[in-house]
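Feature request disguised as a bug report, sorry. It would help if multi-protein outputs had a clear separator. Right now it looks like this:
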Amino acid sequence: MASWALSRISNLQKHLSPNIPSPKGEGLVKISPEVSEALSLGKPVVALESTIISHGMPYPQNLETAKEVEAIVRQNGAIPATIAILDGVPCIGLSPEELERLATIGRKARKTARRDIAHVVATGGNGATTVSATMFFASMAGIPIFVTGGIGGVHRHGESTMDISSDLVELGRTPVAVVSAGVKSILDIPRTLEYLETQGVCAAAYQTSEFPAFFTEKSGCKAPCRVDSPEECARLIEAHNSLMLGTGILISVPIPSKYSASGNFIESAIQKALKEAREQNITGSSETPFLLARVNELTGGASLSANIALVKNNARVGAQIAVSLSQLRQESYKGNVPGDGSL
């Protein structure tokens, strides 16, 4: 637990002098004053990706959803830190004006995974961060929890195409806890779980023993482990980080029952969308946005409504976990340091 005390001291020094470059490259990153202050004081912070804003839905619905998700994080006691690259500058925590700008840019912003970060920065471009890029920046800033909709994974027929999301590799090397609704159901969920196991990633299901499947509560796959409360999640994260395992954690939260669409209905739409993607030779980073948009069309908007509902639910759970983790660390710090534990 003493390691967290040292981390807090490091955070204090970093945020008191935020423009001084460090070996990790933090001097190249802009951290909002609110997020910087929260991190330096050990308050709960939740990282949020920005691809869902730029590529997930049209304007102004994307802006409204982004604001609502940030509001839910605040209502549950944490500070939201939406991450994006604007004019070549990685931003951790967006102002209302920056959030609106990203929403209006929409798909003109580059969908930015870890591999794309350097090029977007070097060219002064605008980038909406995916799971892998958001994890990278969250780890750089010392944000332990990141909320998203669903992670990427092994694509169907991935054994032939080798189309595997960089999200999985990032989870295998970046110590950030990712709260999601499991793996997008357009993907090969059993193979994705196998790949996560190979990467040494703890994949936990929240209040269920079955791994959720994004649009639906069940995938037919047993979850490797189960956690039933924010406090249990916090203890899992703290044990993982204290042991310096060096990997991420995936905490999968089932979509609320009232928004869960019929599995067969969704699966039928997915199969049709996959067939169309193959016929149109849509692959790589373009495939997931195409599939999600096409499934939304085929389901008459039901899948988009479900997507928004699950992201909001994940934000609620993620913020509660962040608060529990902050409290656990504060209690542990006070118990290991003479005096009242304040800095």
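(second protein starts here, but nothing in the output says so)
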Amino acid sequence: MGITLEEFDRLSFDMILMSPPCQPFTRLQKLPKYILLENVKGFEVSSTRDLLIQTIENCGFQYQEFLLSPTSLGIPNSRLRYFLIAKLQSEPLPFQAPGQVLMQFPKIESVHPQKYTMDVENKIQEKNIEPNISFDSSTQGSGKDAILFKLETAEEIHRKNQQDSDLSVKMLKDFLEDDTDMNQYLLPPKSLLRYALLLDIVQPTCRRSVCFTKGYGSYIEGTGSVLQTAEDVQIENIYKSLTKLSQEEQITKLLMLKLRYFTPKEIANLLGFPPEFGFPEKITVKQRYRLLGNSLNVHVVAKLIKILCE
């Protein structure tokens, strides 16, 4: 059941948390004291963002924009998102950098916020670089049985090694369950065979994982990391000359890694949900992944609210 603008105006509130479209805000008669807005990366260079900024400026808000990921709080999960906080006041925010997007949480005592920023006025669009995808020569031409893969560049390997060496970020093992039957989360042989070299594989001692999306558990590429639970197996030995083997031999080798999906509870842990958080039993695993993929990192939002209200 919806709520009309008239009914909304009669409510008593100090803060609005929202994700665009946010047109109703532009017609409110009673303004909130605080606003916290979230959206995906790219919103900061959109026309909708420009309209939003124009509106809140006209309403008398001081604001600051951010591009933040949980890794800045020591959480081993990349989930870069756009945030805006706004405060109804005449004085500028103590960390305000007009026209810029902060790339880290502000240190209010800092007098050099520009070193953490990117210039929004330049509207810099990142290049949409396609993965280096190719067919292995040993399977090319075999139709649906061909294995599609991409080669990791030296730069990508170096970046992952740097992430795993960052002691300011916790290890994944701090977020894992230890009392759940994991057999249902193991990747099936068919998925292993088809997507072996597309997987982002992490171990419990890693300090990184890629963003988990709503398609996790149903789709493979770009939906989230998978966990190697056989830590005594060297992944390099498994993948060496893998595509030169028969399909049966490939599956045998890949199964040695005991790769599994992260459980919904583990993803919730990485997103900062409290230990007592859980889903009703009637919610399927697929539905849980979808809900979590559309969620926010609780710790990031909580810190922004704290900064906003100080």
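Even a blank line would do. Unrelated, but nice: Residues 110-150 have pLDDT under 50 and may be disordered.
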